[in-house]
Amino acid sequence: MEGRDAHLPAHDEPCSRWAYMPQELLAQIFSHLEVDCIGQAAQVCRVWASAALDTFLWKHKFIQDFDLDPSTCHLPKATKSSGQPSWRGEYRRIVETTPCYMTDELTDHGHQVLHVSFSHNGQYFATCSKDGYVLLWDSGHPVRIRHYRDMRVFSWKYTQFSEFNATDTLLLVSGVHFGQHSVTGEIAVFTVDDEFELQCRINNKPYDIFGTWFNQEYVISGELIWLNTMLSESKLWLNKAHQETTSEHIAIVQPMFRFFNGNVSFCRMLRIAEFSVLPSLLRDSVAAAADCGATPPMDGPAGQREECRTTPAGADRGLTPARQEVKERVKYLLFTTGSKTYTPHQIGFKRLDGFRIRTRLEPGPSLRERVELRRRAEQLHQELLAAGQPLPDQPDWNDWEAVKHQFDTVDHVIDLHGHIIGMCLSPNQRYLYVNTRPWPDNYVIENPLHPPPIAREIDMHVIDVATKKRIGKTYRAHKAYTCNEGCFFLFVDVAKQFVASGAEDKRAYLWDRHHTACLSKYPHDDVVNAVAFSPADPGVLVTVSDDCTVKVWRSRLNCQRLGIDTAELPRCERHRRRRRGRSCGGCAQERARVEPVDGIRLMDDTADAEVRHSTTGVSQHVMDLISQPRSVRC
């Protein structure tokens, strides 16, 4: 070896010796470097560039930098559009497409901002606030107000929720009426055009039903009717979003369902899910529900239901349904409810495939005939009293068997064993993401007016709407601190690759959908109530807070596309916990300590040590490496 290297110049000796080092050993050495250093090392020579592309190296850096469990970490499935994914590609996707730069901070609201929602084309977003205004914004850069409306002129206390219809031509806005203890609200519908005209106003009780679009022209609202001190009826109505002027016989309001509520509970947070699915999945979920005796949560005044576990279609038959069946379109009404206490802790499912909109009203009796019918009923009542005969019996609402024929049944219910504080559907509407604050394990509710204590740690569950069961992903990191009585909504939003949620610890949180890794935190000066991704570009995220601000966060790619200089822009916080107790090469360092407290798993603050970094703390060298690595000759 000495004779072979004797003729080499002194400055070439290290290079030649490194050139003969096995690629596996180089990759192992590179695994101890930061990603930007790996990018620089890849430009030394072809051998180093090849080692820097090692699959196991990038898997190691991905697991290490994003705090993943190596035993459960795997690549997403291949798709027709993107092909077979790689660990290097996954790293690049997260670095380049995660919203991280705050490009706009909007202070036009004069009070706490409660909700934000995007139009489906991504051109607009709407915000609701306790100042009583709803603001419609152009989402381009810089963001500007397109329209606004003060809803206090309609006796609204504040606006709380908004949603665009499927064609982005109408905007639903939900609000709360004035009153110290008011539970009534109203829904208003506006046109999304140059005029922003009010189309209709619809009563809505309770206000946290919010309302939702049944289709692009009809809105679902609610009405709460108390039957006695503990029992009530939730009546859902279908309302046309604009007044009909063609004929007085065209229906603009029609009843949908009547649900029986027990233990001071009622329906809230309506959502509509419509997607395509194999019929066998639906049949198997229904059969499994029947086998385990699953019954609706509201088919008895005080019944307590347990969640039904279902088996995936074809699991015990060895079939491949995709080759034998054609997908069918299904539609579900989803809502929160309860059966054990008044706080929402269950998700109800009602299939809507058989529901038909009534297009024409029957004329019915005239006004004179209706007055005469009422006069005769009152006359009969007086005659029975005068004769001392018993009056017709009033329904005994506590006897469910005697009154159940008056109500609709819920198809299925899932009990999440915790206080539900927000939920959202995935872009394809197949999966439901639900924020819950869990109850203590095995807690027995003795009085429905005294719900269990709730954890400060929030769990985000994922439910497959087709099979009606929870899948094995749970997103954690965000926290809340209010008690049951003061608990409020923290809205969730879901994009193709990311999930985000508000939290009471003055931050919004973002996770990767596939890897369930918490990637970023978006700071505010107060509680973050809601978040929303742009459907046109998930690299755009809007967060709203009790600090009266609306913040717009954009990804590195989005800023490049818009020509935004990111050098001086504020950045989000990187959610990254350096695991302790093992070396970097182990890829499975110790997680932050978790201790059970009263049956609830709460994060120990002393173990929640975080190293905050920018999501884009990677140099241009690694961008070159990830996109198109260069081969440099020695």
Outline:
The protein is α+β, with helices and mostly antiparallel strands and 634 residues long.
Features:
disordered C terminus; alpha+beta; five-stranded antiparallel sheet; 31 strands; 634 residues; disordered N terminus; 32% strand; four-stranded antiparallel sheet
Helix count equals 13
Tell me the fraction of residues in β-strands, as a range. 25-35%
Low-confidence residue ranges: 1-12, 292-322, 577-634
Number of strands: 31
Query: Which geometry do the CA atoms define?
Result: elongated
Strand line-up across the major sheet: 22-23-24-25-29
The description of the largest β-sheet is: 5 strands, antiparallel
Share of residues in helices: 10-25%
Structural class: alpha+beta
What is the average of the pLDDT values?
81
Radius of gyration: 29 Å
Distance between the termini: 20 Å
Explained architecture:
The chain is an alpha+beta fold and 634 residues long. It is 18% helix and 32% strand. The chain is built from 13 helices and 31 strands. The strands form 8 sheets. The chain has a 5-stranded antiparallel sheet, with no helix packed on it. β20 (457-464) and β21 (469-479) form a beta hairpin. α6 (55-65) packs across α7 (87-97). The chain starts with a helix and ends in a 7-residue tail after the last helix. Residues 1-12, 292-322 and 577-634 have low confidence and may be disordered.
